[in-house]
Amino acid sequence: MMALHAEKPPISAGLASLDIDLIFWHPKVKDIKALQYFLETNSLDERAQSVVWLKKFTMRLSMWKGQYLHEMSLADWNTAMQALDHFLRQMNEYYHPRRIEYDTRAFTVGLVKKVRHRTRPLSILTSESIDRRQPAWWNLKI
Questions:
Q1: What is the model's pTM?
Q2: Residue 117: is it exposed, middle or buried by C-beta count within 10 angstroms (0-12/13-18/19+)?
Q3: pLDDT tens digits, residue range 82-103?
Q4: Which of 4, 26, 28, 74 has the lowest CB atom count within 10 Å?
Q5: If we measure between CA atoms, which residue out of 21, 84, 97, 16 comes closest to residue 56?
């Protein structure tokens, strides 16, 4: 039997989440059929969780092409981030949200690292300089 927090990474894995959380604030279109289509075409739909609220869409992405994000090699991570970049551009073009947040903060074995909320360009997701083991909380500028 799995414990509630069995999926939490050990401290040695870094303080970033196993998943990527996205928040699309105040989308102008409320229909979620396009959302599902964009997830599928970018291979991000497996184990993705989406919730539609009155003023936002929230989403947790765990996998890309059948691989867990936290278990990927650096090369696969960079390719997955290109797919995520394309997905976010499609979402922005179709839904026109006021703001998109990218969040990889996580509680790891009861510890949390404080992270400043910053505005970053979308291109940072595909840059080699991103450290996926460190948590991030960004407003993405597209």
A1: 0.83
A2: exposed
A3: 999 999 999 999 999 999 999 8
A4: 4
A5: 97
